[in-house]
């Protein structure tokens, strides 16, 4: 008989598999779009390469999640049918969990460093000499150090409550790192848009993607860790069977919302990146003050020669199709 936990498990497999498919489609779309459109003069090739690499690494992360969910379900079914005992399934899942967690952490570390590097190229055209990338790397190294500290403290304490508190604090702090970097990117995008009002319309989608991916998703992850801590604390005091169904239901709900925000964030961020790649944007007051000789040449154009959209006097590009004028 299928219970509620089996239903959660099957739904989780379906969600993880769907995310993998969506990321593959997104990767193909972004790659084809970049190849077939004329990039704006301010869009550096490093930005497009880094952004595609970021999606590739995200694809690997989503595949690891799907592989673990599927393996867990298969081994559980085998154990229930008697083909494999629970000691074997615990050992295999333990090894597989450590392997996927380690690969996933390393993969996400590289993926987000690449994302931050692409954002640095996008915002500064490498004029910042890697300062933004260095900040991202330092925060990621800090996350790795926190994990090591968690392992050491847990080994020293050997106490259930101490281990749970350490796990909660460390994982909340690690997710807080992503929130810090997300806020930094939003501030930089906002300041850049102030320098050139045309940028505001082309950075909204990127800002929305950053909010979902680097702020909302980490907050959901923190909620899951807090919920697990409370649940484990209750179990430690003898309330295990009273709260396990509620805990799993709430955890599944938060996990679903986190996965939903994650994939929507990736899609919105990618669409925002593509939108900014095809238009000539200005990223500094110095460049904005110089203007462009094309403003004089295009002063008399009333509509886009490509799609027919009405143009403002002195427009450098079409706001609809992005064609350079």
From TrEMBL:
<keyword id="KW-0812">Transmembrane</keyword>
<feature type="transmembrane region" description="Helical">
    <location>
        <begin position="132"/>
        <end position="156"/>
    </location>
</feature>
<protein>
    <submittedName>
        <fullName>Zinc ribbon domain-containing protein</fullName>
    </submittedName>
</protein>
<feature type="transmembrane region" description="Helical">
    <location>
        <begin position="168"/>
        <end position="189"/>
    </location>
</feature>
<feature type="transmembrane region" description="Helical">
    <location>
        <begin position="250"/>
        <end position="274"/>
    </location>
</feature>
<dbReference type="Pfam" id="PF13240">
    <property type="entry name" value="Zn_Ribbon_1"/>
</dbReference>
<feature type="transmembrane region" description="Helical">
    <location>
        <begin position="7"/>
        <end position="31"/>
    </location>
</feature>
<keyword id="KW-1133">Transmembrane helix</keyword>
<feature type="transmembrane region" description="Helical">
    <location>
        <begin position="210"/>
        <end position="230"/>
    </location>
</feature>
<dbReference type="InterPro" id="IPR026870">
    <property type="entry name" value="Zinc_ribbon_dom"/>
</dbReference>
<keyword id="KW-0472">Membrane</keyword>
<feature type="transmembrane region" description="Helical">
    <location>
        <begin position="51"/>
        <end position="72"/>
    </location>
</feature>
<feature type="domain" description="Zinc-ribbon">
    <location>
        <begin position="304"/>
        <end position="325"/>
    </location>
</feature>
<feature type="transmembrane region" description="Helical">
    <location>
        <begin position="84"/>
        <end position="103"/>
    </location>
</feature>
